[in-house]
Structures are given as structure tokens and as C-alpha cells.
Amino acid sequence: MSSDADSGVEIKGTDDGSGGGREVVVSLRTYKAVTVFSTLIAIVSVLLGFAFLDAATAEAGPLPVLFDVLDVPLPIGPDVAGLVLVLIGLALIGLGAAVYVLGTRFRTTGMRNAQDDSDEQSGNE
């Protein structure tokens, strides 16, 4: 367990590289900000990712219609454009998942991990 006295951030976890979860203990105000914005970014990224996938696979989705209305010229062929849209969509979905996972690492001092309760027996022993 380490602590940064200047920022009020305490990091709990294992430093032995065993892959244990690292938790960052922050103030309540910071926790709320991180939770709200990480969830917002994750949701918007995943929705945009699916919109780009829809644009790549279907001709009637909102993005192809928007491209047609704005008369966006494609300097490349439609097959390559579809591939680019698929890659952008998958990257946005991955970004949303990564932001959400990193946002769940934060907790405030009053919170505790449900896995730390010793009252319950886990059947994994």
C-alpha cells in the first residue's frame, strides 16, 4: 500500500505483479467526478462505435444517411471505406470498455470491497 501525501491519493494493491486489482482511494468529490465522466465517455464511445459499425455494414443507418446528406466524397472505394468504418467502430467500443474499467478502479475512503468480507465462504477454495 502506498500513499501520495500531496494529492491525498492512496493506492491499495499488490506490487508483486500477480495481477491483483489495484484500487485508488480518492476523496468523495474526485470519486464522483471520475465516476460521472468515465461513465459518460464510455457510453458515448460505445454508442458511437456501434454507429460506425452500423454505417459500415448497412446502408440505411444514421451515419450513411448523414454522409449522403452532407455529400461527403469518399476518395477511396466503398469497400475500403467500410473497412475503415469498422476499424473506427471497434476502436471506439474498445476505448469505451477501457475507460469504464479504469473508472471502476477508483473508490472513496468510506467504501469497501465486497470481496474483502471474510464472513462469506466463496466456493473457490
List the helices and strands and how they pair.
Blueprint: E1 2-4, E2 9-12, E3 23-26, H1 28-57, H2 62-69, H3 78-103, E4 106-108
Parallel strand pairs: 3-4
Antiparallel strand pairs: 1-2, 2-3
Helix pairs in contact: 1-3
Biggest sheet, open or closed, and with what strands and sense?
4 strands, mixed
Oligomer: single chain
Compute the CA-based radius of gyration.
21 Å
**Segments where pLDDT lies below 50 for 5+ residues?**
none
Total discrete domains = 1
Tally of alpha and pi helices: 3
Helix content: 40-55%
Overall mean pLDDT: 78
* Gap from first CA to last CA: 25 Å
- Tell me the strand percentage band: 5-15%
Any idea what the shape is? elongated
Number of strands: 4
Instruction: Give the SSE order as H and E letters.
Output: EEEHHHE
Q: State the strand order across the main sheet.
A: 1-2-3-4
Query: What structural class results from the helix and strand content?
Result: alpha+beta
Description:
The chain has 125 residues and is an alpha+beta fold. It has one domain (2-112). The protein has three helices and four strands. The chain has helices spanning 28-57, 62-69, 78-103; strands at 2-4, 9-12, 23-26, 106-108. The protein has a four-stranded mixed beta sheet with strand order 1-2-3-4. β1 and β2 (9-12) form a beta hairpin. α1 (28-57) runs antiparallel to α3. The radius of gyration is 21 Å and the shape is elongated. The chain starts with a strand and ends in a 17-residue tail after the last strand. The relative contact order is 0.17.
